[in-house]
Design goal:
131 residues, mainly alpha, two-stranded antiparallel sheet, 6 helices
């Protein structure tokens, strides 16, 4: 999988300098980070809805499609911010093969206008005092 990620990262990097009308990814880069983040959010919602449908119907084909789309747009986001997907995959290795079992860093307060009081996976727990 890392070979596929590396090849995709190379293509995404090459699209940064391409004309906006040359590819979908180049058009996203030209529209800017906010548009890319909007697409990640949109694909996140579509993935969640597909998972709910899959749980009810047993058909996971739409879930697989939407998850791939979410991953793709997440890779575009990482590339736009100068990050290689390898940075994520190194978080999957280590003491546990399951990323959810690793202890996440504690949230920190932020004054970023697009967030609420905390930023982190654990923001709900911290905000409720259950950290």
């Amino acid at each position: 999988m890392t070979d596929t990620l590396s090849r995709l990262a190379e293509v995404l990097e090459a699209r940064k300098g391409a004309a906006a009308d040359s590819s979908y990814v180049a058009s996203l880069y030209h529209k800017g980070l906010n548009k890319i983040l909007e697409k990640v959010g949109e694909e996140s919602v579509e993935t969640i809805l597909a998972a709910k449908d899959a749980a009810a119907s047993g058909d996971c084909s739409e879930l697989i499609y939407e998850t791939a789309d979410l991953w793709f747009h997440s890779l575009v986001m990482l590339a736009a911010l100068g990050q290689h997907p390898r940075r994520c995959s190194t978080n999957w290795t280590g003491a546990s093969a399951c990323p959810g079992t690793r202890k996440r860093p504690r949230a920190r307060k932020t004054d970023h206008p697009l967030t609420t009081e905390y930023t982190s996976w654990d923001s709900v727990a911290l905000a409720s005092g259950n950290s």
